[in-house]
């Protein structure tokens, strides 16, 4: 799987694995091989999932949420679902990037084992926070090892590998909280009752996001007034309900564009948009390019750029 990012640069998937529960996307493990010139303006993007990113080899420049980092082998990055990010490279550079995408509700899927602090490094950051983990911290090497073990679990698919992926991912999240000092310490843990509510709401959205969904509909499910519900939802997902729905629709549309030859109108309608004009506007807002440009940048088996 490969795609051209410019006249001189290419992004190729070496490996891509997805773990779903009950047909829903929860966690994705991808290895990208990047080569040649890449400009931020061409490759920056956001997505509904949270991201852990590790540079396996090579060098480049990472721009994440307004911050910039020179990157090298072994660097590990934390990226939430609202931060625009992209890897820049010079013409002569190449790089291998290992990426773990996961939705917050992957952690919620068994509420009796959930503690709100698992996601604090994404949503409750202090002033010392850095997207790049301290390479001098010995725990960073342990996190690199867990990246590899998660890849091994996906590759081997032994019995109960899904549980092992979750255990190892939670292990990484606990290490991030315990050993890096990136999280505000004055936040109380989330309550299981709140988690049950947010899970019910996200299940509703994930089953109906191509349909018309109002803030009032979602607030009613949570038994809250719309204003409070919006704040409540953002605390767990890092974005407003409307932004969450939009990104679900755009992700759905991107999959259609990659996998089918349907017209832009057909894809817009199947993805929850009433007009091509609105679809084009919202698609560009999220991805930085029009649906047509995105399609032209893909080959039949292409994937989103890193």
What descriptors fit this protein?
306 residues, alpha+beta, Arc Repressor Mutant, subunit A, 2 domains, 3-stranded antiparallel beta sheet, disordered N terminus, disordered C terminus, sequence-specific DNA binding, AraC family transcriptional regulator, transcription
Structure explained in plain terms:
With 306 residues, the protein is an alpha+beta fold. It folds into two domains: 2-179, Sandwich (Jelly Rolls); 191-306, Orthogonal Bundle (Arc Repressor Mutant, subunit A). It is built from twelve helices and nine strands. It has helices at residues 40-43, 104-108, 120-123, 138-156, 161-179, 192-208, 215-222, 226-237, 241-259, 264-270, 276-287, 291-296, and strands at residues 2-4, 10-21, 24-35, 50-58, 60-64, 67-71, 76-79, 85-88, 94-102. The strands form two sheets. The protein has a six-stranded antiparallel sheet with strand order 1-2-3-9-4-7. It has a three-stranded antiparallel sheet with strand order 6-5-8, with no helix packed on it. β5 (60-64) and β6 (67-71) form a beta hairpin. α4 packs antiparallel against α5 and α7 (215-222) packs across α8 (226-237). Residues 1-7 and 300-305 have low confidence and may be disordered.
């Amino acid at each position: 799987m490969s795609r051209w990012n410019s006249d001189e640069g290419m992004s190729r998937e070496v490996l891509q694995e997805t773990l779903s529960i009950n047909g829903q996307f929860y966690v994705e493990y991808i290895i990208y091989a990047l080569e040649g010139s890449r400009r931020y303006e061409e490759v920056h993007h956001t997505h509904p999932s949270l991201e852990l990113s590790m540079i396996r080899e090579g060098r480049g420049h990472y721009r994440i949420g307004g911050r910039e980092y020179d990157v090298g082998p072994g660097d590990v990055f934390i990226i939430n679902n609202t931060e625009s990010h992209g890897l820049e490279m010079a013409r002569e550079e190449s790089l291998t990037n290992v990426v773990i995408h996961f939705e917050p509700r992957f952690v919620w899927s068994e509420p009796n084992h959930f503690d709100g602090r698992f996601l604090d490094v994404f949503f409750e950051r202090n002033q010392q926070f850095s997207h790049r983990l301290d390479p001098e911290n010995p725990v960073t090497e342990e996190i690199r090892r867990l990246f590899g073990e998660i890849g091994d679990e996906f590759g081997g698919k032994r019995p109960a590998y899904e549980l092992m992926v979750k255990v190892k991912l939670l292990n990484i999240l606990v290490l991030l909280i315990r050993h890096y000092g990136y999280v505000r310490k004055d936040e109380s843990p989330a309550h299981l009752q709140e988690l049950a509510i947010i899970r019910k709401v996200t299940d509703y959205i994930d089953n109906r996001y191509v349909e018309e969904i109002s803030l009032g509909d979602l607030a009613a499910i949570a038994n809250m007034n719309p204003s409070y519900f919006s704040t409540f939802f953002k605390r767990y997902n890092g974005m407003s309900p409307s932004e969450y729905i939009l990104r679900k629709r755009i992700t759905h549309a991107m999959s259609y564009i990659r996998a089918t030859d349907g017209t832009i109108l057909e894809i817009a309608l199947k993805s929850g948009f009433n007009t091509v004009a609105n679809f084009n506007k919202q698609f560009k807002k999220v991805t930085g390019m029009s649906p047509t440009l995105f399609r032209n940048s893909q080959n039949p088996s292409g994937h989103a750029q890193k």
